[in-house]
Amino acid sequence: MKMNETCALARYLAKKLGYHPKTPKECWDVDATFDFLYEKWGKMAFTAMQCKTDDDSAKAYFDATEAVLDKICAKLEKQKSKWLCGNKLTVCDFQVAHMMWSYWVNDMHNCGDFYTKKCTEMCKARPTAGRYLMDLHAEIAPILKTRKSAGF
Questions:
Q1: Using one digit for the tens of pLDDT, what is the confidence trace for 113-147?
Q2: What is the Cα–Cα distance from 101 to 127, expressed in whole angstroms?
Q3: DSSP string, 42-101
Q4: Whole-number Å distance between alpha carbons of 67 and 60
Q5: pTM for the full model?
Q6: DSSP label at 24?
């Protein structure tokens, strides 16, 4: 079966694998948070794929990073939860992990350390986000060790 549409596919897999909640209110929170993250991810992904380092691209990239980190802090501090949308890992946490390892902490970033150096500093400057990202790394490490190779 071939499936397209990143967001729809992410939600499908999250539901199938138990990383999407069942209650309507929790589903709304996860979906709204995922939509917010996806929009910010797009600003980082496009810039990185195009290897753009001009002032406008850098501003969009860093503004998106700052918005995500601020959202992480606001949600965690308000909810007093371990994860972005509660006390159970969700698709939103996987989206943040993707951003972290692809665009903030990545020795193989398309633009070298032009973005990663400042993004790492931005993460460290927010203790709540920093703790969350460390917890996320520890939680996802066993999952990453057991995943199949992409083959390319």
A1: 999 999 999 999 999 999 999 999 999 988 878 87
A2: 18
A3: HHHHHHHHTT--SHHHHHHHHHHHHHHHHHHHHHHHHHT-SBTTBSS--HHHHHHHHHII
A4: 10
A5: 0.89
A6: H
